[in-house]
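It is worth pausing here to work through a concrete case rather than discussing structure prediction in the abstract. The textbook approach is simple: state the sequence, then state the predicted structure, then interpret. We follow exactly that order.
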Amino acid sequence: MHLAREDAIISAVNRFLAEKGFDAMTVDEVAADVGIAKASLYKHFPSKEDLAAAAMVRVMDRARAFLDGLQADPNARPLDQLKAVARWTMEVQLDGEMPSLPSENSSLRTTLINNKAYMDGLMDVSERLGAWITAAQADGSISPALPPIAVLYTLYARACDPVLGFLKMSELYTREQIVDMVLSTCFEGLRAR
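Step two, the predicted structure:
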């Protein structure tokens, strides 16, 4: 029962973070959505920041599972692996399942940095992506002039790219077209071909 309730809480938090973002989400609405008292929610998670951290741990776990699946193909090119990761993050965002967190909230940042499960997941994902980035630079499919950290952060930015939402709201393109366009601008740039 305890784990099922925590799972329901984290699912609600993830949905609210994806729909509204951290600043607009309230603990009251999370408790109401799950059907528990606010005091009961605080027995599971002592703060709003801890709620967001739990949602981010879940996203990291999903990302790691996705990367595990990609690594199962030993013949895949590093660039194709990176494109698959970027595509997955954009699809998760378009599906309304990617938490939207502010980059400047110091209390949230502190909570995330102090959350071992989150940091372990982030380091694991970053190391795996970093290995594919350096391999793609070595084989010439990504410019070696770019610092690997800049490429890594560019990939992470796709998970919270506002362009996806703007294109979706325009109702001019299918989900697949949106992902393909943003993927193209990310990996091929804006130059004419």
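Step three, interpretation. The domain at 57-188 is CATH 1.10.357 (Tetracycline Repressor; domain 2). The two ends are 57 Å apart (CA to CA).
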